[in-house]
Amino acid sequence: MPQASPDTPVFVMVHGIGLSHRYFDRLQADLIRHGHTQVLDLPGFGGTPKPGQQLAIEDYAVVIGEALDAAGIRSCVLIGHSMGAQFVTELALRRPDLVSELVLIGPVTDSARRSVIWHTLALGLDSLLERPLTNAMVFTDYARCGLPWYFTELPVMLNYRLHERLPLATQPVLIIRGSNDPVARHRWCSRLAATAQDGRLVEVSGQPHAAHRGGAREVSEAILALLHKDNRLPPQPGNSPVAARQEPRTILRRLRTVVSGRNSATPRPDTANFRSITIGDRQCRAYPMMHTGAHESDVSPGEATAQRVFVLIHGIGMSHRYFKRLASVLADYGDTYLIDLPGYGWTATPAEEMSNPANADLIGTLLDDIGVDSCTVVGHSMGVQSATELAITRPDLVSNLVLIGAAVDAKRRTALQQALRQRVFVLIHGIGMSHRYFARLAAVLADHGDTYLIDLPGYGWTATPAEEMSNPANADLIGTLLDDIGVDSCTVVGHSMGVQQRVFVLIHGIGMSHRYFARLAAVLADHGDTYLIDLPGYGWTATPAEEMSNPANADLIGTLLDDIGVDSCTVVGHSMGVQSATELAITRPDLVSNLVLIQRVFVLIHGIGMSHRYFARLAAVLADHGDTYLIDLPGYGWTGTPAEEMSNPANADLIGALLDEIGVGSCTVVGHSMGVQSATELAITRPDLVSHLVLIGAAVDAKRRTAYQQALRLGMNSLLEKPLLNAVQFLDVLRCGPRWYLAELAVALAYYLEERLPLVGQRVLIMRGSRDLIAGNHWSRTLAETSQRGELLEIPRKPHAVHHSDPATVAAGILAFTAHETTHQWLSPEPELTLR
Question: How does pLDDT run across 648-689, given as a tens digit for each residue?
Fold first, then answer.
């Protein structure tokens, strides 16, 4: 990367142990408006190859320095998070010429708390405070890193004495921590800021360890304030340094570098990365898809030493996205740049029209700045004109010229003739809809011609006019718009409510919103106008002063549909929404032609030491078929730990009270592992509430009722489970704590499932994976046989957490079971499993 101008800051972000560049997505999105940004994936992290030996902090510093040298960076604001704070500090000491400012976010390791146990507990506590999306990102990055490499580098992090090394740094140092960060505590961060030669501390209110994600804007502002204080940015609040310079020509770059071992390599980025040039009011962008080397063997020996470069130029009315499929193939053979001409895609529209020579000159300047010496230029449709001009004016730059669908035919040089040659479709939605209503149809039509989806005034993202719009007024507005676009002839597709049209009205249940029907609505919308209702107080509607009765809801919905102009409709009610739907059908038989009531409820109860997250995959499938509730038992997940152990009847009583509070009238209860005990008690004590009982991996086997036997089986089973699930289990057990885990284990071992299950009068489905080492085949068969109405279903080749490894099959079995199907077969057991 060529060196930026001195007043353009370069922000380099370095992740911590186990993580990757993805951790900086929000901060990068904010900082890129103020300068250039670069993020790294260090060796062994983010999917990069793992070195053959342990790397010290000094080794990482060398790798980062080499990567920045390779990128052409001579000075940067170096930002490190967590263990990344150690990497960047060491680099600042070794290469003071390279680092202008040093930013440490949530720095580790606190010298007063350097043990593995304390660090693990602090991270476990932090996971309770982080956003779910951040936790998901952390877990997936940890899974890609792998526990062996994580634990190889953990001692390196714990033994590095940041408080001794940081005072040696001569650069300005900014320490940033979240006020709720349990890892980088206030006292520790204050000490670092005080011992630095030029240090300051900023705390982001309400944020945990990953303060740069939830508090990206505050962190960005703190970094920019540091640059203002050091006179690295002009003190103009609200203006980015790029805009403040007001230079006639500006180059913007957004890069992502993955560092592997001692060498830097740039993978193929997605088209969110770009290079941009602005000259006056003209802007042009290039979106790079970098060469992967996948087809090096396809080139001749003479070509092997040179790097092929492809430049793709779109036609009128298009953007770089028009070339994405072709670019994904060409990127296997060479660096590929997708161009957005001025006024197209995400580039600014110039004040005056751009001629083809002007476009060619701008593209040539951009490619020079990128560093392209020779390239194959590909132009499509009217983009062939700019491509041709570039080849004529820059023969030194263009080695080959490829013209696809070249326009304009000399015999058809009028706009009308061009329109006739090019089919154009214009799609106009109906009342209450938007352009998204045509998304599926447009995706098909776009393969046959230019397709425009219209948002009428007051719909979608258009502004609402002061007065209602008549159809002639709408038509006049659409015509003017198409004239501005340059459409001379088109096929217009209108979707009207004036014709006989099926109408569907979807009413959600308690605690839900219209979004709950998104998937169903997407299907129904292909067959008629579909309205998703937000009842008062739900979704984006205001909460009324008093509670709303079902007749009141029905009256309000009826009035709304009258205002929209619906004369007859099919009303679909789900869960508690069936009550409002039924009232609407009773009070407005003229309006409701058909009534569909959907009410399936699934309640999922986890086992000992786990949490509701253990059911995430299964719940995602079941949620398409009914309301699904994932339970956190007392002392697990995010619930508080009671003073005394909880018996299974006590858990069942608490779950029943919770479901009553929610308003669940009847449900299918699914219990896993030792959670089957509380599920069974709930079915016994509340037959009015539990319609079906599903027990997955039922524990505890009567022949293995000791803690030693359970621990041995759990350990062996963990070898068969997916690494990500083991990580989730590990963190859940940490959150639960050993005291509560052992107390609840004693309760579970003292519960005799084989004696309680025969008291269940509901239909019972016993489900297990055929490789389940905890709920054996003989034990599971015994439970099914001794139940009053029991069935057994085995999932081949799956371990104890079968609902996690194969959620689709488990969900299909539950749905078939609750639909009163009797197609389950007794499966013969697999041969004995041999562990190697």
Answer: 999 999 999 998 888 777 789 999 998 999 999 999 999 988
Which residue is it, tokens 């505050």? 218
The residue behind tokens 């570098």 is: 257
Residue 18 CA: distances (Å) to CA of 43, 45, 343, 546? 10, 6, 42, 51
560: pLDDT strictly greater than 80:
yes
pLDDT (average), residues 37-57: 87
Looking up tokens 């230019």 gives 450
Residue 516 vs residue 189, higher pLDDT: 189
pLDDT digits (tens, 9 = 90+) for 172-188: 999 999 998 999 999 89
Alpha carbon distances (Å) from 555 to 66, 426, 515, 581, 796? 70, 38, 22, 10, 52
Mean pLDDT of the chain: 81
Alpha carbons 766 and 758: distance in angstroms, whole number:
13
* C-alpha pair distances (Å), 279 with each of 106, 351, 488, 574: 40, 12, 32, 57
How far is 782 from 701, CA to CA, in rounded Å?
A: 10
Kindly write down the DSSP assignment for every residue of 14-50, as one continuous string.
E--TT--GGGGHHHHHHHTTTSEEEEEE-TTSTTPPP
State which H helix or E strand residue 152 sits in.
Answer: helix 147-159
Please write the tens of the pLDDT for every residue from 91-113: 999 999 999 999 999 999 888 88
Which amino acid is located at 752 in the chain?
Y
Task: Tell me the C-alpha distance between 703 and 707, whole Å.
Answer: 12
Of 152, 171, 146, residue with least CA distance to 77: 171
- Residue pair 94/65 in contact by the 8 Å Cβ criterion: yes
Mean pLDDT over 194-203 rounds to 91
- CA 127 from centre of chain: 18
Tokens of 370: 């990128």
- H or E stretch at 147: helix 147-159
pLDDT higher for 510 or 297?
510
Residue 447 has pLDDT above 50, yes or no: yes
Q: Dihedral sign for Cα 407, 411, 413, 419, please.
A: negative
Query: In degrees rounded to 5, what are phi and psi of residue 94?
Result: -80, -30
pLDDT, tens digit, 9 for 90 and up, residues 229-247: 765 555 443 333 333 333 3
Angle in degrees, 0-180, between the axes of helices 675-685 and 648-662, rounded to the nearest 10: 60
Closest C-alpha to 698, from 794, 830, 828: 794
Residues contacting residue 425 through CB under 8 Å, at least 6 positions apart: 442, 445, 448, 449, 450, 451, 452, 490, 491, 492, 493
